[in-house]
Structure formats: C-alpha cells, structure tokens
C-alpha cells in the first residue's frame, strides 16, 4: 500500500512567494480563497504577492511630469544664490567643466555618466521648452503625464479577473482594518503600489497611525510617502522628521532628502545625508546621494571624491564606476576612463552605451582599430533610433578625427536619418557644407541646430562667425548674444561681440 504525501497548499504558496514566483503564489491563494473566503493568512499572502509584482522602490525612482514642473506652487526663491539651487547650478566655479569640454543638458548641467530620472534642475521656463526637449537633455526630460510609472502601476488593478477585482476599495471599512496591524500593513502596500489609490492609502495610514497612538515610525514614513506623492511636500517633511526622531532608518533619510531636492534645497538635502552618515557610517546609498547632488550642482571634484568613497565600500557599484569614468574622459584622461569602462565590461554590463563609450575612449587614446570595432559592436547592440543616431554621430566624429570627411558626412546624414532632432549632427554637417563652399546650406543647418538645441553654444557661435564673414552683422550680433547666454566664458564669442560693438559704435 502506497501513501502519498502532498505539501500543504498554504506553505507551497508561501514558498513560491519567497522564491519570487508571485503569479503562482497568487493562483494558489485564489484557489484556497475559493474554498474558504475568510482565511486571513491566505488573503494577506495574496495581497503581498500582487503588490510585489508591481513594486518599485520609491527611494530611487523620481519622475516629474510637465504639470508638476509648470504648475509648481512650492517655488521659494526664483533667483537663488549661486551654489544653493539645483535650478541654476554654478558654472564658473573652480574645477567645474565648461560646455567647451563637456556637453550640457538643457537644464545647464553637464551630461552625467549615468542616466537618472528627471530632477528639479530640469525645470523648463516655458511650456514649449518643456514639450520640445532636445536629445542631450534626456536625463532632465519631463514625461507627458503626471508620471508614466504611476499610470502603469494604477492599471494593474484593471486586469480582467473572472470574479472582478481582488479587493473592492470603495466597500472597505478602513477603520476596522486599521485596528489589525498585521493585515493593515499589507493592505496599505496593496492600495499604494498595486491600485495607486493614494488618497485611500493616506486615509488608512492616518487611521493606523492614530490607532498606534502615533508611536509607530513605519506608519509615519508611509504618511510621508503619500503626502509626497500628492505634492504636499511640507507635510511629508514633518512626517519624515517625526519618524526619524523615533527610529533612525536609512530609507527615511533618503525620503527626507528627496523632499528637500524637490523643494530645491540641495544644501539641506546634503545636511540630511550627512546626518544619516553619522548614524550609518559608510552607507553606500547615502554616499551616492551626496555624490549625485554635488554632480547636479556642477561640483565635479567633490562628486568624484564621494563616488570613490562609494567604491571603497562597494567595488561593483555601476553608477560610481560610470560617473568616475566619464569625469576622467572629460578631463583629458581617456586611458584612465578606459580602465573604468573595461571594469564595467568585466562585471557583465553589456550594452550599446558601454561599447559606445569604450569606442570614444579608444579613439582619444589613439587606438583607432579598437575604436572602430567597439563602435561596430555598439551598432549591433542598439535598441532604439536615438541610440543608433548617437553611435553614427560618434562614428562621424571619429571620421573627422582621422581626416575622412566623406565618411563623416555620410555618418552625420545617417545620424539625422535615425533622429532628425539631433542638433549636434546638424551643426557638424553645417561645418562640412561650409568647407565645400555651400554657404546657404550651412546657414540652414546652423539655424536648425540652434532651434533644436538652444542650450548649445556651438551653433550660435558658428552662425555668428558665418554671418560676420558674409557681412550680415545684425544676425551675427544676435547669434553671438545667444552664444554668450549659453556659455558666458567663451573667449571667441566675446571677441566677436567686442569687434561688432566697435563696428556699430563707429557707424
């Protein structure tokens, strides 16, 4: 006689959840709930599994929509002192890279070595500028909705279920669940992350905090997250401060610093990070936060120091390696940058951007054969038209460097075929057309580049020089002024302006 022993279904569901097989866990729980609808353990486990399917860490991800940027009510100082605002980062401090060395985003910051979600420093001044964001400002680009991520999370509850939605939020008695701590926390996370119903989550968190007699720091953090999502930043600040007074926790410091960054108070955010380091010495996430703020404020030397501290604690930190590598590249040390990017390759990072950077480092280190093979590999790994355009643009730059102007012309044309908003390619094509003697074509390309990328000084300066040579002094003066606005320290622009002013004064 054989005896068959089967595993308890609830234990099997719990084991599946532990192994991150959330769909299987939810299916088993659904079967169990069909048999016993009031089983709280199964209900709680299914809620947790559904939440984990769509969970994204709130600490790292930050996206501001056009509405958040243009209709901001928390503006404190429109003209902040230099070095105290993310909106107007300092550009002339010692050690800061200039646009002549390191390209800038539309928000006025140098392009970083690691793409991050949009930050407050990318706040546009006009609605047109917010909608038409150039390629180089991809790290500061506003998304068209309140947040694409929140919309995606909110639609998780709209998936068709044979029996309707798992939890009908409108019929929940929140006061009853607030008195059950174990069920309450999983229910809150389900409402906040899966359903994206922030107001209901806020009501539940407020009732649970009251039931805990305002002594549970976890609920205060959740209240702060709800307030932050709703744009009530000062209320969020109070909740995070209160939670830190009860319990020091790394994530709470990160949330509080995020609030201050949204309020455009980077100095206060740095203070919060450093207070966190007093309690949690050498914590990688806090060090990374400090480095990011220094980088956003154009203070590259301090940012590099903190990224090096990060690597002392975690020598596989991709963001720190990439940012240090890009800093070395833009400070005329391509060989050292090559070592950092090769380290990323050894760690298993294998994408178009890495091979693109390796190719440029090899080119500036005069390893031309390796440069072309790396850029060919980058072309094979592209995942979108913008990446394809960037790689072809860099190939054109390599072709200019080795003197093959015909190849360069074809590469820049290919770059525009994949992305016709590529301002740099238009600018370089204009220079090549000018060398051929096609003045009108060059002027058209420069005007296109200037309209697509108003934050770049090169098309404005080139147009000013070209107009000056053909005798159109008024257009030259206007373009030179735009170049000066984009890069005040540019010596050649100052010389053109000086000569034009002398010419106008003598008329």
From TrEMBL:
Q: GO biological process annotations for this chain's record?
A: actin filament organization; cilium assembly; convergent extension; gastrulation; heart looping; Kupffer's vesicle development; left/right pattern formation; melanosome transport
Would I find Nuclease among this entry's keywords?
Answer: no
Any one Gene Ontology cellular component term annotated for this protein: ciliary basal body
The source's superkingdom equals: Eukaryota
Pfam families on file = TPR_12, TPR_8
TPR repeat boundaries? 389-422, 423-456
Q: Which SMART domains does the annotation name?
A: TPR
Q: Which UniProt keywords apply?
A: TPR repeat
Question: By its UniProt entry, which PROSITE patterns does this protein fall under?
Answer: TPR
CDD domains with a match to the protein in the record? TTC8_N (cd21341)
Q: Where in this protein does the record put region Disordered?
A: 82-139
- Which Gene3D superfamilies does the entry mention? Tetratricopeptide repeat domain
- Put simply, this protein is called Tetratricopeptide repeat protein 8
Species this chain originates from: Danio rerio
Per the UniProt record, the lineage of the source organism begins with:
Eukaryota, Metazoa, Chordata, Craniata, Vertebrata
Gene name, per UniProt, is ttc8
């Amino acid at each position: 006689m054989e005896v068959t022993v089967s595993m308890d279904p609830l234990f099997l569901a719990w084991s599946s959840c532990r192994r991150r097989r959330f769909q299987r866990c939810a299916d088993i729980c659904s079967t169990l709930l069909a048999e016993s609808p009031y089983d709280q353990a199964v209900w709680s486990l299914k809620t947790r599994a559904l939440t984990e399917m769509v969970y994204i860490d709130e600490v790292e991800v930050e996206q501001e929509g056009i509405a958040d940027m243009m209709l901001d009510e928390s503006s404190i100082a429109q003209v902040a002192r230099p070095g105290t605002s993310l909106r107007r980062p300092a550009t002339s401090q010692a050690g800061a890279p200039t646009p002549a060395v390191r390209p800038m985003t539309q928000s006025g910051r140098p392009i970083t070595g690691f793409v991050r979600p949009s930050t407050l420093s990318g706040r546009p001044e006009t609605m047109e500028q917010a909608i038409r964001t150039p390629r180089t400002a991809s790290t500061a680009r506003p998304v068209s909705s309140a947040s694409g991520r929140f919309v995606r999370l909110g639609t998780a509850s709209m998936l068709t279920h044979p029996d309707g939605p798992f939890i009908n939020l409108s019929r929940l008695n929140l006061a009853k669940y607030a008195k059950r701590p174990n069920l309450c926390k999983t229910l809150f996370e389900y409402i906040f992350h899966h359903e994206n119903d922030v107001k209901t989550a806020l009501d539940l968190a407020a009732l649970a905090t009251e039931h805990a007699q305002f002594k549970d720091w976890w609920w205060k953090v959740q209240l702060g997250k709800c307030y932050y999502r709703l744009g009530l930043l000062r209320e969020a600040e109070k909740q995070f401060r209160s939670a830190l007074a009860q319990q020091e926790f790394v994530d709470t410091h990160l949330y509080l610093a995020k609030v201050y960054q949204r309020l455009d108070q980077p100095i206060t955010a740095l203070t919060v990070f450093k207070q966190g380091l007093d309690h949690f010495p050498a914590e990688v996430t806090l060090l990374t936060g400090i480095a990011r703020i220094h980088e956003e404020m154009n203070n590259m030397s301090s940012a590099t120091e903190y990224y090096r501290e990060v690597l002392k604690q975690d020598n596989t930190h991709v963001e720190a390696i990439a940012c240090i590598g890009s800093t070395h590249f833009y400070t005329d040390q391509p060989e050292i940058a090559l070592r950092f990017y090769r380290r990323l390759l050894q760690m298993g990072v294998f994408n178009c951007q890495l091979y693109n950077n390796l190719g440029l480092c090899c080119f500036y280190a005069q390893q031309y054969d390796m440069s072309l093979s790396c850029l060919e590999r980058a072309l094979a790994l592209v995942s979108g038209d913008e990446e394809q355009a960037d790689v072809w643009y860099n190939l054109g730059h390599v072709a200019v460097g080795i003197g093959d102007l015909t190849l360069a012309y074809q590469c820049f044309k290919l770059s525009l075929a994949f992305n016709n908003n590529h301002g740099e390619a238009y600018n370089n094509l204009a220079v090549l057309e000018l060398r051929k003697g096609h003045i009108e074509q060059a002027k058209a390309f420069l005007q296109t580049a200037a309209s697509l990328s108003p934050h770049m000084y090169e098309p404005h300066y080139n147009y000013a020089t070209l107009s000056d040579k053909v005798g159109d002094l008024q257009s030259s003066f206007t373009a030179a002024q735009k170049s000066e606005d984009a890069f005040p320290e540019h010596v050649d622009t100052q010389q053109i302006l000086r000569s034009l002013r002398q010419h106008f004064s003598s008329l």
